[in-house]
């Protein structure tokens, strides 16, 4: 929601939610459900992660183990081998990196390599994972992975004749039969009735057979953890209760072979449940199950785990929650949970919507292929954003960034302050700066609110060139940072800036526009870094900023930027050239 007061501290970064944040999915796996193998090579994964950042992603979620239905668990050593080079490279480019893992060793190594968030699919139910994150400063994502339907007991159909005569006759026959059995037993067995002996089927008047009711012990099943309950009654027919289907035996074998991997066992059941046709003789009166018991389980788990982390020493502003769509939940249950987004948002933690390409999205949209579900994903995410979700986790980060920018520009008026540095050392330098200022004022959803004086400075980095004219322009804009940057690059091109490969880096230029800082924005990647990574060493930027704010060095230090002392900076100011 607009102007959401929540913040999320993730290591050295702090994310605000005056605008929804986009988490791009980067699966470094051969078997993920929609993009398995596409980014398995580390170099391909790094290139794709940077492309998502340059297209609008705020966070990159790197995972090395697929947790799709029916997944095969991955050894932590293999998982680390897949993800660590990718995490290290993306963090080096200023990206906020999330490590998607349930293994403590992998989480520790990833955080050492620069990851700022631990996304635990098992919801920090492992005490070792809790012990690790409480000693770090990383952000944490508590996810609910488990079945949410209450267990139900089914019985075989029973036909009864309730007439008084039939009841009396039946009692008499039972007494006679019991006396006959007792007479045949050895004397030592007559001391008490043996438990569990089946009663003979009795014929009632009219030839109707009344079978014995199933009072025996229920069939043993895999016993899930507290947050992973037994599947719903709709997952088994009455006939399966009496005579289990052939596939029930392999399920028990699989669970027994991996007693500690409850997530894998639960997702195998989820896969079989999706594939199976479940007949029923009882028609539902409502299109969806009752939301109350489902939300009690999901919200109860998320609240309990968040409190566990807080009591262990993890500050509240580091915790994000995720209801875990698709993890042990049917399509109906997932829709119920998404419709209750506002209730989950009311818990007060940043809330993630991680529905991208999930099975229930295909069910409601009619799209079979997972990779073709992006448009439907955007629709579900929009509903979640309107109800209070703060972060959307998507595969198509570029497409969703376009979608969100279009929606946000119309639906959520939100001007934010930003600073643009302007420089020129070719042609009429001051005229070039003034022309750039007028063109910036013409950018859609943008206005110029203030300007510094124009200063002359020594050339920086490449010293064998003419002195520069420099200024800083303060603007207000409703555009996303990358969209604003594209507009600034268009102005550079119109004023004759040469950005071709033959142009000398940091060499002479007619105009140079740098987006320095934007309110509430932190960004990494090749195309844009916010705050600008060199702002703290540039005298030709910090001095003009003193015309627009009090003590810019202190301001940027507070925002995590290292600011050098004046004598250690580059491009020193040598004089004034007039007002804008």
Explain what the structure shows.
The chain is α/β, with parallel strands linked by helices. Helices cover 36% and strands 16% of the residues. It has helices spanning 42-55, 76-92, 104-112, 127-134, 164-184, 238-242, 248-257, 262-275, 291-312, 331-339, 341-345, 359-365, 374-387, 397-411, 429-440, 481-494, 539-545, 552-558, and strands at residues 4-10, 13-17, 21-27, 59-63, 96-100, 117-120, 139-143, 202-203, 209-210, 319-322, 352-353, 391-394, 416-424, 446-451, 454-457, 468-477, 512-518, 573-578. The strands form 4 sheets. An 8-stranded parallel beta sheet has the order 10-7-6-5-4-3-12-11. Strands 13, 14, 15, 16, 17 and 18 form a 6-stranded antiparallel beta sheet that branches. The chain has a two-stranded antiparallel sheet with strand order 1-2. Helix 3 links the parallel strand 5 (96-100) and strand 6 (117-120). Helix 1 (42-55) packs across helix 2 (76-92), helix 1 (42-55) packs parallel to helix 14 and helix 10 (331-339) crosses helix 12 (359-365). It is elongated and about 120 Å long. It starts with a strand and ends with a strand. Residues 188-259 and 277-281 have low confidence and may be disordered.
